[in-house]
Amino acid sequence: MKMSLVFHRLSWLGVLVLAWLAGSCVEPYAPAIVSAPPSYLVVDGFLNARGSTTIRLSRTTAVASKTAPPAETKAKLFIEQENGPRYPLAETAAGTYVSATLTFDAARRYRLLIATQRGQDYASDFVAVKLSVPVDEVSWKPETDGVRVFVSTHDDTRASQYYRWEYEQTWEIRPPYQPLIEYDNALNELRDIRVRYPLSCWVSDQSNRILISKTTPLAKDVVSNFRVQTLSPDSPLLAVRYSILVRQHVLTQAEYGYWELLRRNTESIGTLFDPQPAQVVGNISNLRNPDDLALGFVGAHSTTEQRLFIAQPELPRGWGRRSGYESCVPPDTVYVTPPKTELADVPAKLKSSFGNPGFLPIDRVYSDMGVVIAYIAKAKDCVDCRERGSAVRPSFW
Amino acid sequence: MRIIYLLLLVLLANGSGYAQQAGPKTVTGDFRHLPFGQFVHELEIQTDYRFYYDAAQLDTFRVSVQVREQPVATVLERAFRNTPFHFAFGHERWVFITTAPAPDLQLPRAFFRPVGSPPDALAATPEATAPAAAPGRSRYVSAAEYQVHEIGLGGGSGPVTLAGHIKELKSGEPVVGATIFSESPSVGTSTDQFGFYSLTLPAGRYTLKVRSVGSKNTQRQVILKGSGRLEIEVEEDITTLKEVVIEGEKDKNVSGMQMGLEKLDIKTMRQVPTAFGETDILRVVLTLPGVKSVGEGSTGLNVRGGNTDQNLILFNDMTIYNPSHLFGFFSAFNPDILQGVELYKSAIPAKYGGRLSSVLDISSREGNKKKFSGAGGIGPLTSRLTLEGPIIKDKSSFLIGGRASYSDWLLRRLSNKAFQRSSAAFSDLSAHLSHEINEKNTVYATGYLSTDRFRLASDTTYQYLNKTASLKWRHNFNNQLYGVLTGAYTHYDYDITSEQNPVNASRLQYAINQTSGRADFSYFPNPKHSLDFGVSTLLYQVQPGALRPLGEESLIRPNVLAREQALESALYLSDRIDLTQRLSVSLGLRYSLYHALGPRTVYEYAPGESRTESTILDTVRYAAGKVLATYHGPEYRVSARYSLSDNASVKFSYNRTRQYISQLTNTASVSPADTWKLSDANIRPQVGDQVSVGYYRNFKSNTIETSVETYYKSLRDFVDYKSGAVLLLNPHIETDIVNARGKAYGVELMVKKLTGKLNGWISYTYSRALVRINAGTPADQINGGTYYPSNFDKPHDVTLIGNYRFSRRFSTSLNFTYSTGRPITLPIAKYYAGNSLRVFYSDRNAYRVPDYLRADFALNIEGNHKVKKLAHSSWTLGVYNLTGRQNPYSIYFKSENGQIKGYKLSIFGRPIPTLTYNFKF
């Protein structure tokens, strides 16, 4: 429970008015509902007018369920040009279907056909092809709440108007330790390291918010500094170097409407004046059984993208100081001499400490006499950055 | 020794009836064994002397005397010969009769009247019998009670009409809702908003009793010889000032015609504890049976299953479009200027129209006509001050009240940065003037202004404004007929500015103006009929939305929707007929006529298809003043009452209402960005019908009232919205609107105790409010076109409003309220799309939030009760939500970091103590 509004004493015209404006509080809430949730087909993806199309099929699942929604496998998918040819998609991973690289005729309309393993046939509505205009600029600016990343674009022909962006962000991490020793499991002893742990890794993730904007209320088809991401000044993403790739989709009005509804439903419900949630379905229907819903909107368009880098030194003083490894300092110490550990117990101590691969030795601690009295060590997550990302330097880095 | 002769006396002529006779007259008569009272009466008729004597001493004394054209002195001398009685003449032809030797008669005249009472305020003559004044009562009022007022000139047969005003003695303000009645025969009426009454009785002598809340009971003795006027002044009942009374025409519950009417006076409202210690008129109305809202932060009223836009909210006959401050947390009326509020839930009088579900008639007091006074209060969020007084004593008065918040100042003191960047300020100002030109003509003027401005942790500033004014002229044609001519103007607008990004900086504005004129007449032709009739006309002018760029850099393209206007007119007539002693009916018909007027561009859509931009067939341009759509229809207003006994009755009512303007709102709660839309060629007016039956019974000499009312209501063509509808700046709003049907039914049980140390009311309501949207194509339907619960469908509701008075100075109030949780649309499944988990929602309103339960407590401490002191003050210490239960205001689900999480938002999630100081001088 969060007390939002509390105020203390105030004196007014000699009258002491003591009051609390007690606040609103927000608590987690889990209704015990829906014993038999519906299992509708979910179609996620778009028909790429200039490249390879990737469509993911899955099923809806109960809200309370802990597992990820199940993938829909072994379906047959085709991209169909209106009164024209069909192009098949192949399942590359469970529920993920990928087509060959295609170039759509911008004057024709396209749709997606799906035949599921259970024998149900679905099709999206035929949609017009929208080709994306280039991204003019991806820029950033430090503001009071942190680093804001903006995208700008325009279309002089006023044909685009409806935009959606996704981003993929990548940042470099540097763990605080570089082990000089490693544990030999067979010999139950510590030796000099043979293969060094990487000094840096790169972590990536994708946008999960729906970023859309339309320019229909504007006199020109210009998107100026649309904010796609905000990073707080102490975000570990800014600790070394940060990169964001913004991918732009130009949508039809109908597809924009679908995303807007989806966003309103799941991202902006709860304040006092947000609209009520609505069922969001999309443009896919079961060809034989209209009561069987399929969720998703399959549009046909191309994408354009642009990448931005932000290095820590470019930030305002004091920003980007958190590495994300703060909880890893200080390191632990494993003593191997009396009085902390009797000599007879040292092998067992080593076994119990380092026999667990999640705990890694970092370096030896010597006494004044040059005798090893202890080892410093820390959890693997603090030492091996591959626990958090990939040690392979991305091609664009 | 002071004279303890209590007096009363002899008569002059009735001021209006008889001409004052000049000089002493002689007495002629043959009086044999005449009771002294009658003898005096006879003398008073023949002369213009007034007699003062102690009736107790003389009641057994009988006069036997024969005189012919003798002076009064001679007559008296003969009458009192050989008796212990003496008589003496004073100034002004007063005659004093005593057992002692003749007294000193040079007393100041004022001795017999309290200082300050106007001489001959009562244009009637007093007669005999004078018991001692009741303790604590003004001698003036006491005297008036025992005077016999002779009314009229007539011969004294056939029905006559007595009319006049009932006013408060000290302030001269009219007393609204006071009842005046004769017990035998049982005939009564109550005063209207001007304190005016008109009572028709057979000629003869009556004792008329006057009862009203907050005033001492009084009575007048009248001899009706012909139609005439009687002005009555009543005393404020200071000692019971803070007694909770939910209205009190004591047997009104049973004997009144009205059903589905709830009256609250300001004293009741002050007792009800509220979240911020502010007396809040709408919040108290929400405790009444049949009135609900979506949540506690909202003052949008849902009356018997109606939408929040279906209530006609009138403040001194001016329509108020947004009656709340700060998102609906406060109502926008200063409690100090209010007289009371009446809520019509069914049997809406024919006089009112334009909204489907209810009429909420809020009236201000009239200013004090006798002396300057004021009142105010200091609460945790706002302070208020009201001043009133005479402009011309007894003729005209003013009343002005203001209230302002200092929440801005508070917000800046909060530790949270977001709140520091917020601002919220509101204020309201009301002014009321009344002037009595003469006995027949009175004019009233009211002005009202309420403003709100807030910015909540963002770059968007909301402002809204209500501005209204009215002018009323009331003319009494005669005792049976009076008319009121009213002109009113209402303006409401809002203005939302967003200026963070210079490229998108913009200002969104909306405004509605309403100019109306109406003439209302009340006619009382005979005791069996009372007629109301009138005409009204109303011009709406709406600016449905204008988005304009702000600043040089802004690229916002101006989007200004075309103005809309329409004219709504109505004619009405209703007659209340007392068929028998037991059965009364009221038959009313209102006929309303609506024209949507140009200039407008109207789209025509392909019939039978879902309206979208692509189904527009044609665009028709209408010139200024051209009628583009006409709607009209009768509105029936029928009610009946049958008395089963003196303390039980059954009532029935049926009414139809039509509404030509709808509020466009897509959110659970009424939001400040909601707009009002006029009916036009594509949007039909809403029509509602309600049938209601009730049983009423009073116990314990009308101190306990019970009632059971049940109703069924059907609503047609109210607006609902397609999923994802765009309501703002939509030039073809009809493409996003669907016509919905609604039905609502319920039973309301209520027990009220009006008097005594323990008083208050308890009510239970079972009600349903259902909606169906099956018009248009399947894509437009909601829940497959079946009935589903509306947002405010809360079947069970129990409310207790209780007050216990320990002493004159201390009283406590306790509220308890329980209701079923409101319906909600819940997510029933989740899925993965756009790199995030999404939720799939259930059918609309298929589930409910947890039940609502809240108890509030207040302690009212009055200052001492000396009637005369500089200022009367009181403290109210309250605790809102005593148990600290976290009642859900809103339940919502959010996709956060790829996870779907449900949250429950409680607005007042813990006990909230408040302290308020009120004063009156």
TrEMBL record, chain B:
A Pfam family it matches: CarbopepD_reg_2
Keyword Magnesium set for record: no
Subcellular location: Cell outer membrane
Occurrences of domain TonB-dependent receptor plug (ranges): 275-355
Topology with respect to the bilayer: Multi-pass membrane protein
Superkingdom classification of source: Bacteria
Residues in the signal sequence: 1-21
Cellular component, GO, one term: cell outer membrane
InterPro entries: Beta-barrel_TonB_sf (IPR036942), CarboxyPept-like_regulatory (IPR008969), Plug_dom (IPR012910), Plug_dom_sf (IPR037066), TonB-dep_rcpt-like (IPR039426)
Keywords in alphabetical order: Cell outer membrane, Membrane, Receptor, Signal, Transmembrane, Transmembrane beta strand, Transport
Similarity section: Belongs to the TonB-dependent receptor family.
Protein known as: TonB-dependent receptor
Organism this protein belongs to: Hymenobacter rubripertinctus
